[in-house]
Amino acid sequence: xxxxxxxxxxxxxxxxxxxxxxxxxxxxxxxxxxxxxxxxxxxxxxxxxxxxxxxxxxxxxxxxxxxxxxxxxxxxxxxxxxxxxxxxxxxxxxxxxxxxxxxxxxxxxxxxxxxxxxxxxxxxxxxxxxxxxxxxxxxxxxxxxxxxxxxxxxxxxxxxxxxxxxxxxxxxxxxxxxxxxxxxxxxxxxxxxxxxxxxxxxxxxxxxxxxxxxxxxxxxxxxxxxxxxxxxxxxxxxxxxxxxxxxxxxxxxxxxxxxxxxxxxxxxxxxxxxxxxxxxxxxxxxxxxxxxxxxxxxxxxxxxxxxxxxxxxxxx
Length: 316
Description:
The chain is α/β, with parallel strands linked by helices and 316 residues long. It is built from twelve helices and eight strands. 47% of the residues are buried.
């Protein structure tokens, strides 16, 4: 298996106004004459970093990445107004047109897999290949598993601070209870709820807990955008028409070569969704990594992702 590539230099970067409210940060790296690929980060509310450039051979790929509305270097921070799946799909198209790219590979994990699929199903003629990891299809059972009852049974110790932050009489709907606090008029209330929300996810992201990752997730500004945006999208059911939309629209991307990379022990986005997606896409390959959880930076999962991009690197 291949190793992660060295961090390449940033070639271009900028801030692009995409609405009366939002400006998004974008950047490019690698070979400007190479195969275009866009990296779609997770969350919603995560953001990109130099590490997320390392899945692509910088000699072969023209790498594009951006911070989605409300997070990372995009402004305004943690803003949920005018912030939907379809706004982000439109932002990706704006970036493609701004960079004069005709077609590109789309690469995304977790929520990034959701947005990658939504983009590809909206603009299938613009996508040369798909690489998706930690598949999340935005169905009610997936959200219930992680934010109400399911993953909590595997990690009761990590769950307890998240659960106990909410009074007993509100615990039958934890997402709604967190929404009240994350969008409170009191910034201190927001930050305390955001830290509990973000640390819960960070605590179960890896096969073996990564203390540095958990600490990073607790950082107040990151946690606020991460928690508010995730909650906003989850409470609005991803802004999809119905919960099986991404599966039902697989016929639109049936011809796009797709590699699905999934950690066997991913407890945030269990393997069932990746398996179902693979069953709907005849031109897809499912790679289940036997010793990995959710994070793209689990060593064997990262290697599988690099194998996937290397496989597509020389496609015309």
